[in-house]
Structures are given as structure tokens and as C-alpha cells.
Amino acid sequence: MVTMKQIAELCGVSRGTVDRALNGRGRVNAETAENIRKMAKQLGYEPNPAGKALAARKHRPVIGIILSSEGNAFFDRVIEGIKAAAEEYKIYGLQVEIHTMKGYLPEDQLALIESIQADVNALILNPINDKRIVQKIDELVDAGVFVVNLNNDVDGSKRHCYVGSDYYNGGITACALLEAMIGTSAKIGLVLGSRQVLGHKQRLEGFYHRMKRVKDFEVIDVIEHEDDEIFAYERTKEFLRLHPETTAICALAAGVYGIGRAVMQLPEEKRPMVIAFDSVPTTVEMMKFGVVRATLYQHPYRQGHLAVDLAFAYLVNGRLPEKQEYIMKNEIRLLENL
Predict the structure, then answer these.
(1) What is the DSSP-derived secondary structure letter of residue 269?
(2) Which of 224, 211, 223 is nearest to 182 (CA)?
(3) DSSP assignment, residue 129?
(4) How far apart are CA 246 and CA 114, in angstroms?
(5) What is the pLDDT of residues 212-236, one digit of tens each?
(6) How far is the C-alpha of 127 from the C-alpha of 40, rounded, in Å?
(7) HTH lacI-type domain spans which residues (predicted)?
(8) How far is the C-alpha of 195 from the C-alpha of 84, rounded, in Å?
(9) CA 225 to chain CA mean position, Å
């Protein structure tokens, strides 16, 4: 195993200089520090785990996590992934603090960020696509806070990276899947949480883009329900009352259980085909009832775990993300392969 002493000898400096250059402790000439880092990388140097743990515990790094997750079962598995990663890194003194909110009001999210920003070294944020949130992200990054946008992104921020699915591709895939299952003629209701969420907007755009290839697909209306099951139920029920000609519903976000309950109130022969996203327990239940025919899976556990992995790598090892985006594949799931 390569040691600091060996790097020091090769670079012609003291071991203390190597320590300061690799760990950001004290002043080192910029050119010397760069040479040391290049040599360490070339030799495959890895700090001693016990030493890293001791150093991290002294600094007690804190990751603040803000999720618009209340009432949205998708995030249960995201949070499981976050907690599993937090447990793995507990030896390093890493603290992970999860804060949740309901809905997509930028004012609420901004207030929550401001309430914790002085106490965190990293922020994992499920952001609302609003210029005030973008400005706050940029402010945090400029202040030295490591920022990961989780499960959703925003337009044009300085965040360090995004972890989540490709929403535009998800919309394309949903449309192609519907065509494969129903044929080339359908009168469709599209149901989503909010256009305030960049991913929901992108998924809608992807669906419309793919729909250009299908001659007789018609979108009757787009329903927004703030990822609230009650709103999803009420608004879908009213939509179906006004549009009994509907043959398909694409649930492009959460609220699938509410959508399914509204569909189930129709006689079986008049129920539209429903495809959805994610495989939360209530969606699986709707699949067992035959209401939801297929769903697109986004790997929520991996999203949560990876976001913490990246924040840990930066806070403890000083390692920046290798990519701007870490994309989870959209996978088609039927009841038979859940």
C-alpha cells in the first residue's frame, strides 16, 4: 500500500506537506500541491480508513436532506436507501438529517433550506423548479456546501450533480408502452403532480414528442394533483365523468392509488387502460386488481443511497463527482415481473 512517506520522497517534500496538500490542512504552494495530488493519484494512494474515520469524526460532517415526500409513497424507498447509506458511514461520524415537506410551494422549500443551511456541509435536495430555489442552490455552492439534486433537477443551477431518472425518456417510454399495449388509437388522460416539478414537465414533453408518431392518439386533458392521493382521486373521477370516451390514462407521477380508485368506480367494461410509474405497494395492489396494466420503475432505493455516497465521498475524501448526472434506467414492470 502506498504511504504518505513514499509520496513525500518521490515529490521531494516533507510528509507534513503531503498531508496538508491531500487533506486541505494549512497552506501549500499551489504548484507543489498539484504535483502531490497527481503523484498520489498515479500511485493509487488511498488514505487509511481508520485515519479517515478519525479525521471525519473530528469535523462531524452533516448532510441535510430535504424531500417533497409527505403523502408520496415513492420516497419511502428513497429514504430507506438514504438511511442504509447513513448507517454504513456512521463510523466516520457522518450525520444525516432528513427533513420532509408536502407539496410544491417554493416558499415552503426555501424556508426549510434556510432553516438548516448554517448547520450542514452538504445538501441533498429534491428541488422545486423555481428561480428562487435555483438562486439558493447557487448561493450554497458558492459558500462551499456540496449540493446533490435528488430525484428531480432544476433548470441551470450550480449543483454538483443530479441523481435520478431521465424523465424525458420516461415520457417517451410511457407513450411507446401505451401504443404497444393498446394499439394506435386512444383517447388519453395524462395525470401528473405539478409542472412546478421539472421532471413532471419533462415527462409530459417526452410523451407528447413520442405521440407524434402515433396517428390516432389524442390527449383529452392534463390533470395536476400535487402528488396528493385525494386530489388525484377527485380530479380523475371528475375527468372520467366529463370524458366517458377515455380509453387510456397515463399516470406520469404519484397519486396512482387515487387514480385507480376513481377508475374502479366505472363498470369494468368501461374502464380505461392505466399505465403508471413506480411500484409502491398501493400501485402493486392496483396491478393485482387489473386496473394498472404496467408501470415504469425508477430504482428509488439506489437513488437515495447513491446521493449519500456522493456526498460522503466529497465530505470525507474530497472527491468530486465524476459526472454531472447519475441516471437510473426506466424499466418496464408488469405484475408478472415485479
Answers:
(1) G
(2) 211
(3) -
(4) 45
(5) 999 999 999 999 999 999 999 999 9
(6) 36
(7) 2-56
(8) 31
(9) 20
DSSP 278: -
- Check: pTM over 0.90? Answer yes or no: no
Q: Which three cell numbers stand for residue 36?
A: 502531490
Write down the pLDDT at residue 54: 46
Cβ count within 10 A of residue 328: 17
Residue of 245, 267, 136, 145 whose CA lies nearest to 187: 245
Length of the chain: 338
3-state secondary structure (DSSP) of residue 206 = helix
Specify whether the CB–CB gap between 317 and 52 falls below 8 A: yes
DSSP 9-35: HHHTS-HHHHHHHHHT-S---HHHHHH
C-alpha cell at 106: 417554493
- Read off the pLDDT of each residue in 71-98 and give the average, rounded to a whole number: 94
Contact (Cβ atoms closer than 8 angstroms) between residue 162 and residue 141? no
Task: Classify strands 331-333 and 292-297 as parallel, antiparallel or unpaired.
Answer: antiparallel
d(CA 25, CA 299): 38
Domains of the chain, start order: 4-46 (no CATH), 56-164+300-328 (3.40.50.2300), 167-297 (3.40.50.2300)
Cell numbers describing residue 261: 380508485
pLDDT surpasses 80 at 98: yes
Classify 159 as helix, strand or coil.
coil
- CA 109, CA 46: separation in Å to the nearest integer? 38
Q: How far apart are alpha carbons 234 and 60 in whole angstroms? A: 47
